Model the fold of this input.
Amino acid sequence: MKISSDDIVKINQLYPSMREDAKCFLCEAADLNAFIFSGLRTYEEQTKLYSQGRTTTGDIVTNARPGQSWHNFGIAMDVVFKNSVGEWTWDDKEMWDELGKLGEKHRFHWGGRFRGFVDLPHFDRNYGFSLEELNEIYSEHEQLSDVWTAINNYGFKA
Ligand SMILES: [Zn+2]
Done:
């Protein structure tokens, strides 16, 4: 199957050196009817998401404050299945394992292996950085490009 145009848009918001591998992964994920649900999340978007279920309505969907998620730095994506009528679905338990292994084949860390809070749709890379380090780099000028430059200069290749 072909990669969807929605996925292309989301992939192009990720850390540039990650895009090619993300494309290869999502191209194969499309065969499983799985697509990017969430890629880059800005600090502003993360703030909104964190508020949900705490100070605003809805269920709690994240424990990460802004700067505490790999998504905030464009090096993570959540990949979720769609059902036969094109709606997002998290229900098919058997498929997650297959999707996880597919992501790992493309050298992404899979949230299905996280201890504690297992995050089945989540795939990321850290390039040898901690979230604290990336948050510090970002916070200096509030520029995502600073983070990406630091990864280019000091990070290890995935
Ligand atoms: Zn995620």
Remarks:
- The mean pLDDT is 95.
- The pocket of zinc ion is lined by residues 71, 76, 78, 119, 122 (CB under 6 Å).
- The chain has one domain: 5-127.
- The domain at 5-127 is CATH 3.30.1380.10 (Muramoyl-pentapeptide Carboxypeptidase; domain 2).
